[in-house]
Each structure stands twice: as C-alpha cells, then as structure tokens.
Recover the amino acids of this structure.
C-alpha cells in the first residue's frame, strides 16, 4: 500500500525542521528570511516528492535549501533593466569599463586565483569540479573516489578558506593591525 504524501512528508521531512532552521541560521546572513527559506524548501520538496519520492529525504531537503539560498543570492545580483530605463537615454556604452574598474576587477581575480592556489590539493580539485565545472556532487565523488559527504566537506572547507583569504586581502590593513594588537597584548602579559 502506498502511503500518502502528507504522511511521508511528516515522517521524513518535518522531523528535520530544527536542524534545517539551525543550518539556515548558520549560513544565511539575513535571519529574518530564514523561516521563508525553510517554507520555500518545504514547498519544493513536497512538490518534487509528489512526482517521485527521494531516496534520501534529509539530504534532499538540505540540498534544496542550499539551492534556494544560491537562487536568492543570484537573484539579488541581477539588475532589473526596467529600473535602469532606456540605456540609450543614458548615453553610456555598457561595454566600456573605466581603467579603475578594469584594474579593480583584475586585482579581485588575482586575489581569488592566489587564494585558490593556497587550498589543499584535494580540496582545490573538489571545489573546482563543483563550483567551476558545475559537476553534481555524486559525479565528483565518483571521479575522485571519495564519498559524497567528503565532497561536501571539501567544498565547505574550500569556500570558507577562499572567503577568509579574500576578506583578509580586502582589509589587509585592518588584519595587520589586529595581528599587531594581539602581539602587543601577548608581550604585555609576559612583562612584569
């Protein structure tokens, strides 16, 4: 006998609500949107399960939440053309970049490449395959001969290290000051 979708959803998905909310609170910058993201994830999972039940419901739920966060982030970066109005009326060439913008973009790219080169080899390869080549987690795991959970851990570690390196580069003056302050405090503790 095929159980109802509602029963399956309560048993397999809703039991993970507390962990899902903790995960979203940890990873999503706007706490006010966490419960909306949770609800959107539930809707997507429910609709997908109506067609075909996932083999690993918890993993499917969390993957759906990650995809939702990526979708929201992508949408925020999109500029609505209607808001800009008629680009011809602005009398600006869109393809033209100022030398400052070009230099800034080149510096950002250089910092990212340097940070990427500093990743541990397996982590770097995993991040490249998932984020640049856009391969599914299962395929990356198969190619590298590791578990999907290890792929996920490598990607999380790599993204954290990249973000830390990039933010450290952007605020390098502040990071040096903070390091200098730490050394001064340590020295003052050691002196009578």
């Amino acid at each position: 006998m095929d159980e109802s979708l509602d029963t399956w959803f309560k048993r397999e998905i809703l039991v993970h609500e507390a962990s899902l909310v903790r995960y979203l609170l940890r990873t999503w910058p706007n706490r006010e949107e966490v419960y909306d993201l949770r609800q959107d994830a539930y809707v997507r999972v429910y609709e997908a399960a109506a067609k075909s039940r996932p083999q690993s419901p918890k993993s499917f739920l969390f993957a759906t939440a990650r995809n939702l966060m990526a979708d929201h982030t992508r949408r925020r970066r999109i500029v609505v053309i209607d808001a800009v109005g008629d680009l011809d009326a602005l009398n600006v060439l869109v393809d033209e970049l100022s030398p400052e913008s070009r230099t800034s973009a080149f510096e950002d790219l250089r910092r990212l490449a340097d940070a990427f080169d500093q990743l541990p080899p397996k982590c770097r390869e995993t991040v490249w395959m998932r984020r640049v080549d856009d391969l599914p987690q299962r395929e990356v795991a198969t190619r590298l001969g590791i578990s999907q959970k290890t792929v996920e851990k490598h990607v999380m570690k790599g993204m954290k290290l990249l973000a830390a390196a990039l933010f450290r580069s952007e605020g390098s003056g502040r990071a040096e000051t903070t390091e200098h302050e730490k050394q001064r405090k340590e020295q003052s503790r050691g002196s009578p």
Notes: Residues 148-170 form the longest helix (23 residues). Residues 83-87, 89-94, 172-181 have pLDDT under 50 and may be disordered. The radius of gyration is 23 Å. Residues 27 and 69 are 9 Å apart (CA to CA).
